[in-house]
Amino acid sequence: MSEHAHAHAAEHSEGSHDGIAQYIYVFIALCLLTTASFFTYSDYWPFHEQPKIGWAFMMAVSCTKAMLVILFFMHVKYEASWKYVLTVPAAFMSIFLILALVPDIGLRGHWLSEERELYMAAPRAPHKATVRHGDSPHGRAKESPSSGESH
Amino acid sequence: MAQALTHAASHSADDHAHDDHGGSHVGLEYHPGLPIPNGKLIVWLFLSTEIMFFAGLIGTYIVLRFGAPTWPLPREVHLSEPIGAFNTFVLICSSVTIVLGLEAARANRAGPAKGWLLLTFALGSVFLGVKLYEYNAKFSHGIYPWKPHSRVYEKPDLNYAAAVRLRLNDLESKLKAEEDALNAKLSPEAVDADSAIIDVRERLAVVKELTDFELEQEKTAATNSDNTVRHVALQELADRIMPLPTGHGHEEGLNDVHEWFKLPIVIPGGNMWASTYFLLTGFHALHVLIGLIVFAIMVPMTLGVMRAGIVENIGLYWHFVDLVWIFLFPLLYLF
Questions:
Q1: Fewest Cβ atoms closer than 10 Å to its Cβ: which of A64, B20, B124, B150?
Q2: A39: left (phi > 0), else alpha (psi -120 to 50), else beta?
Q3: Most A CBs within 10 Å: which of B326, B331, B333, as the mutation test of the A interface?
Q4: What is the ipTM of this complex?
């Protein structure tokens, strides 16, 4: 038993000893991941035409970052099993909440009354190129909205 | 110390369970419900309610946003992605500094622990400062989450045109009153040379010009038989006041050229955007503020090993605040 405890203590002290280095690694990883999700904003991101790819990518990056923070900064990796009791039900409830909202709120655009549709917001830009002439009072150059739309 | 004791107690209990044959002495051992201090347990219970609180907010945002008929681009609502990325970086740095503070406190190095705590406080303040700057950019463009201040309209319809007309009439009567007051004050020969009155007259001319244009467009929109022409007439009005940015450039509208104009603007989906943006970032900023208050309270303490538990608990809370921002940044700025 004492041998076991000793081994455990050694492991523990070792864990906190290289803890600083570990924090630095996690910090670098977090910075790189932030850059990765910010990369979707840059012109070099190849999927501007299909925003869903970017969304999935950013959510994957965010979940990875969240896990890094939870596991290493909040030390959840080193906690006993009680961590599951407090986090898993809360996480499930959050997912169920979102799913419960989808039929009524998320899909509300699928069953619109005529009146609702009349007063609904509609994208403004597409008409611009077809109608606007270069004779605006401020002499603004007409731009194609297609580049802005795809973002 | 207490932590170490309970830790040892739970481990010896485990060991007994392993090589337990008779088990007569096991029942006498003190065994806490969870092998963590009470304070930490409370913080974790609180955090699990916080998970649900923010999951509710973020979840509703996602559902509202993807069910919306249209959603404004970040540029249209004056949201700067680089600023958001900078704030993400600031919060990540502050997470590192508080965890280093915890390590220092555990090693009973109170001085460095206080240094890390102060650095965390400074980084949190930077985050809030940037947030304030961002809010101000929205407010100055008439984007508010509530009605008397908000000048955002969902689409360029007759309702919008009427709002523009009312604002123009309001401006005209105010400027006329100003002109009359100046006329009464100044002598007849000085009137034409006075810079204040020249300025007022220039403004009146601008208002007059736009009023004429607005009336013309509104008339077209109300009477023309062609649906497209009606639509285009009001769209031209909205474009003149605040053109939606196209590409990476930002055209200037009348609202930008004349800051005193403060005319209603059209941002499709802008009101729902403002409601969700200010609610999410507002609650997050409130959490940051509460964290900063706790840091400020902790500054006079000696953060030795006796206080490591407190540093750990506020650290857990602070990491959670960072965690929420990790999701908010891409969802609000990059989606």
A1: B20
A2: alpha
A3: B326
A4: 0.80
